[in-house]
Amino acid sequence: MELARPEFVPDSSLSRTEMEALQTDIADAGVFTDDLGSTFGQPPVVAGVDQAFDGEQATSAVVVMQGTEVIERTHATEPTEIPYIPGLLSFREGGAILAAFERVEQKPDVVLVDGSGRIHFREAGLATHIGVTLDVPTVGVAKNLLCGQPRESLSEPLPAGERVPIEADEDVTAPDGTVIGYAVQTRQYDSGSRHINPLYVSPGHRVSAETAADVVARHATEYKLPEPTRLADAYADELTS
DNA sequence: GCGACAG
DNA sequence: ATCTTGTCGC
């Protein structure tokens, strides 16, 4: 795949202020409504991307699927220049991800990115950064909530299939109350003391919050994580061990 | 100063 | 993310 917006490639040498300014531009370029293109296959081509680290090296693994079939697997390793800073994750992991996608032949209909998309202080999380830079539809899939406010309390376990809107609050640039994503319960235990936490799904680029949640729910039937994400996670771990 | 915060 | 064995409950 090719870079659509080279000016948005994450540069870890920027100052924190410059990084935040770039995110503001990225959010402006981001599309949080459905624009998945007319090439949506039968079934759609869905890619998952995830990273694993070893010391100063970040390995990004991409798994491309169509239905239940893996049609491509690629990876790239890049040095990590900066530590993890909440809100600036893309400047730590984005380089490795873009390097991996440079080697991807099959253009996916949608990419599932580990982390937040619009659920971000400046509405420019990792999924949005990658989506806008490559101009590919992306969805953010996070295991924890970075910011925003669940419309309903999530202290009680949600049944599988349920979803709760995540709304913008004062910590997010979007107008208060804007639905910036969903807590999506893909799996749940039938009963007992233990329970499964939901995933926090948000639009990255060219996808609405509703469609983002739909895509994740549709691909996460056997396990909590959607299959492309799960396989990319395992592949990244395998490459680092 | 305190709190809060994806991976 | 990563360091790490067993263990409890589906």
TrEMBL record:
One Pfam family recorded for the sequence: Endonuclease_5
Q: Which residues bind Mg(2+)?
A: 50, 114
Decide whether keyword DNA repair is in the record.
yes
Name the Enzyme Commission number(s) assigned to this protein.
3.1.21.7
Q: Name one GO cellular component term.
A: cytoplasm
Sorted alphabetically, which keywords does the UniProt record give?
Cytoplasm, DNA damage, DNA repair, Endonuclease, Hydrolase, Magnesium, Metal-binding, Nuclease
Molecular-function GO term, any one:
magnesium ion binding
* One Gene Ontology term from the biological process aspect of the record: DNA repair
- Cofactor(s) needed by this chain: Mg(2+)
Keyword check for rRNA-binding, yes or no.
no
Q: What does this protein do?
A: DNA repair enzyme involved in the repair of deaminated bases. Selectively cleaves double-stranded DNA at the second phosphodiester bond 3' to a deoxyinosine leaving behind the intact lesion on the nicked DNA.
Question: Which HAMAP family does the record match to this protein?
Answer: Endonuclease_5
Give the UniProt family note: Belongs to the endonuclease V family.
Q: What is this protein called?
A: Endonuclease V
Q: Lineage in the entry?
A: Archaea, Methanobacteriati, Methanobacteriota, Stenosarchaea group, Halobacteria
Name of the gene: nfi
